[in-house]
Amino acid sequence: MRPTDPLALDAQLSDEERLIRDTVRRYVRDRFLPRIAKHYEEGTFPDGVPGELGELGLLGMHLEGYGCAGASATAYGLTCMELEAGDSGLRSFCSVQGSLAMFAIHHWGSEAQKERWLPPMAAGKAIGCFGLTEPDAGSDPASMRTRARSDGDGWILDGQKMWITNGSIADVAVVWARTDEGKIAGFLVERGAEGFSAPVMHGKLSLRASVTSELILDGVRVGADARLPGASGLRGPLSCLNEARYGIVWGAAGAARACFEAALDYATTREQFGRKLGAFQLTQAKLAEMAVTVAQSNLLALHLGRLKDAGELLPEQVSFGKYHNVRGALEVARSARTVLGANGITLEYPVLRHANNLESVLTYEGTHEIHALVLGQALTGESAFS
Ligand code: TGC
Ligand code: FAD
């Protein structure tokens, strides 16, 4: 049995899927991980990463055309897994760029919007963000206050978004706002638009190697062509969230694997009481629990990937995956942390960094409780929201 693949899931992947996974794994190991501790400590996102991910063809890789790779959902999932085995902030960048901003334009945008934005975004030369959450509208985005007033041949946007990944480094923000008719609509707001600013939010103890921002819209005038013509109602943003949440199912499993590997390595090398830590039954029990959780999470991610590739994945199944895999990853990270003793709290090892990141992952893209309620609705037919 291979400790990091006890169920021999590797054999379930195609040669192409393994090739993509191994390429991303190498990038993370050789080029990203040597930089992460410094950026995590300083609370910054490495500048070169968007271009590097673009060169590898990973941005919007599951989309067709416009410079995107047109890869399978499973290949995209494996990519998220490897990126998040590096750091949740790295997978977040990729999720927001590809699954939220690019997907919104690809799925709901006009031909002109797609041609203008998708090729540079796929190359990592233009960065996107996705503004849904507001100070008073988090789990309940339908209560948003951001408004879009029709004005001659364009729109005036007023409002505030909060907790927006990539906000301050974005060239284009997908902003969701309620129109005069009361419908939620999406708008493309470009960096530098008059009345638009995106200050960085400081003081995060989680997802530190990721840019998180406010978006302030103070009478921002955009043309009629800035509106995403296909999106009307909450279905617009929620359809994008399905894509990004799917990536998190895989990503969380990657973070869990990284923590398990660190604990296993430590337990099989460090000695106390004249024996390897891994020789103690209590440590073995922790390692066994971690191995089972990681394998279950991988199995679930792969199953959902195959369903998505077959066009059969339901939103509540994505909620199932996020609910299970993020909770599992947090359990693995916290247990791995204890195996490493004091070393476990340092940036020299990845485990507390992952554990802290996973607190954000538990909350964003629909909190753990919201996904429980989505599942509850699917199980009982009763909505807890209305
Ligand atoms: P409800 O009445 O159920 O639905 C309104 C309309 O939306 C449709 N819908 C969906 N469509 C596609 N996919 C889904 N998953 C959908 N869920 C619902 C629904 O069919 C309906 O359409 P229509 O045409 O009939 O109008 O909506 P509700 O107001 O009761 O809310 C339901 C709820 C609570 C599940 C939803 O509001 C929700 O998911 N809340 C959580 C908000 C959230 O996830 N925010 C995430 C912000 S983005 C982010 O966190 C990025 S982090 C990125 C990173 O760094 O990685
Ligand atoms: P609230 O909705 O206020 O919830 C607080 C608590 O109450 C939670 O435990 C929640 O589960 C619980 N709760 C709420 N409603 C119910 C209910 N009906 N039943 C039971 N419990 C309930 N948003 C974006 O739009 N774009 C981004 O790029 C983005 N990036 C983010 C990056 C980071 C690092 C973080 C932390 C967040 C990001 N978010 C982003 C915001 C994220 O989506 C929201 O934080 C999330 O949706 C929860 O909203 P809230 O924080 O306002 O919590």
Question: Summarize this, please?
Answer:
The chain has 386 residues and is an alpha+beta fold. 51% of the residues lie in helices and 15% in strands. α7 packs antiparallel against α8 (315-339).
Structure characterization notes:
By secondary structure, the protein is of the alpha+beta class. The chain folds into three domains: 9-122, Acyl-CoA dehydrogenase/oxidase, N-terminal domain (Butyryl-Coa Dehydrogenase, subunit A, domain 1), CATH 1.10.540.10; 128-226, Butyryl-CoA Dehydrogenase, subunit A, domain 2; 235-380, Butyryl-CoA Dehydrogenase, subunit A, domain 3 (Up-down Bundle), CATH 1.20.140. Helix content is 51%, strand content 15%. It contains ten helices and eleven strands. It has helices spanning 15-42, 49-55, 73-86, 88-108, 111-122, 235-267, 281-309, 315-339, 351-363, 368-380; strands at residues 64-65, 68-69, 128-131, 147-151, 154-165, 172-179, 184-190, 196-197, 212-223, 271-272, 275-276. Strands 3, 4, 5, 6, 7, 8 and 9 form a seven-stranded mixed β-sheet that branches. The chain has a two-stranded antiparallel sheet with strand order 1-2. A hairpin with a 2-residue loop joins strand 4 (147-151) and strand 5. Helix 6 (235-267) packs parallel to helix 8 (315-339). The longest helix is centred in the middle third of the chain and has 33 residues, at 235-267. The termini are far apart. The model has no long low-confidence stretch (mean pLDDT 97). The structure holds 3-thiaglutaryl-CoA and flavin-adenine dinucleotide (FAD). Flavin-adenine dinucleotide is lined by residues 96, 130-133, 138-139, 163-165, 207, 212, 360, 363-364, 367, 369-370, 373. 3-thiaglutaryl-CoA (TGC) binds next to helix 4, helix 6 and helix 10.
